[in-house]
Amino acid sequence: MVSDAEGIFEAAFQGITPLITNDEYVTIKLQAEEGVIPEKETKKVQVMRYASDSPLGIISDIDDTILISHATQLGKKFWLSVSKNAYTRRPFPGVSELYDILSNAGANPVFYVSSSDWSLADLIKDFLKYRKLPQGPLLLKDLHINLRNVWKSGGGSHQHKEEKIDLLLKLYPGMKFVLIGDSGQHDPEIYASIIKRNPGRVLLVYIRQIKENDSDRRAKMIESILPEKWPEIVFVKNTAEAISHAKQQQIALFK
């Protein structure tokens, strides 16, 4: 495998060993090239594998869904990007409890799909761990390290989010999903498109309401989906509303 200019590579492997519950790792060996010798010849990387017939999975956005990012206010967003780290960035109050409920205390996998750049991957991983949120695979946008893209991270085209969610539904054909996002950008429209193409695969949608008139977007989202296909779509003003609803849904989701 050959990485891109920023050292990122992608590869698909056919699973040949039974799925186990203990931590799994793969070892990557770095090849010397053109006289450049790597500081470490090998790197051990943890692997996250889930059974294709797992009953429920969570697909979550990151910016302004679990992590306060002010994605719609560029000045505030830029300041957060350059002045804060994984331990000083703030989550929305209550998100760890909400994700603990929806993941059934970690029994159900959580996939994080975001328009943030890969340059923020380490920050996001540390943030999840520090804030006691479920660890899970990150599906981020291609890496472009420069000041302009730190400013733009999380913005621009969100087509990749739809592609990544489609990939997850294809990889786990026996799994139903809960989708979590916010109304700051295009999550409602992306999720509506996913639901229309994959009837019956999405059980529940939570959208954090950013603006007061976002109820209009909920109505349009439902109108765009045939009635027999759409799941319950819940717009919430804060995490407490989502927690209250999720507790009522636990029996239905986990049966």
Description:
- It is globular, with a radius of gyration of 19 Å.
- About 11% of the residues have low confidence.
- The protein has one domain: HAD superfamily/HAD-like (Rossmann fold), CATH 3.40.50.1000.
- The protein has 255 residues and is an alpha/beta fold.
- The chain is 33% helix and 19% strand.
- The strands form two sheets. The protein has a six-stranded parallel β-sheet, with helices on both faces. Strands 1-2 form a two-stranded antiparallel sheet.
SSE order and pairing:
Elements: E1 24-29, E2 42-47, E3 56-60, H1 74-83, H2 95-102, E4 110-117, H3 121-130, E5 138-141, H4 147-152, H5 159-171, E6 176-182, H6 187-197, E7 202-208, H7 215-223, E8 232-236, H8 239-254
Parallel strand pairs: 3-4, 3-6, 4-5, 6-7, 7-8
Antiparallel strand pairs: 1-2
Summarize this entry quickly.
This protein is α/β, with parallel strands linked by helices.
> How many angstroms does the end-to-end distance come to?
42 Å
Level of helix content?
25-40%
- Quickly give the structural class: alpha/beta
CATH class category = Alpha Beta
| Shape, principal axes of CA atoms | globular
CATH fold call: Rossmann fold
Report the β-strand fraction as a percent range: 15-25%
Biggest beta sheet attributes: 6 strands, parallel
H/E series = EEEHHEHEHHEHEHEH
Low-confidence stretches: 70-84, 145-156
- The structural domain count equals 1
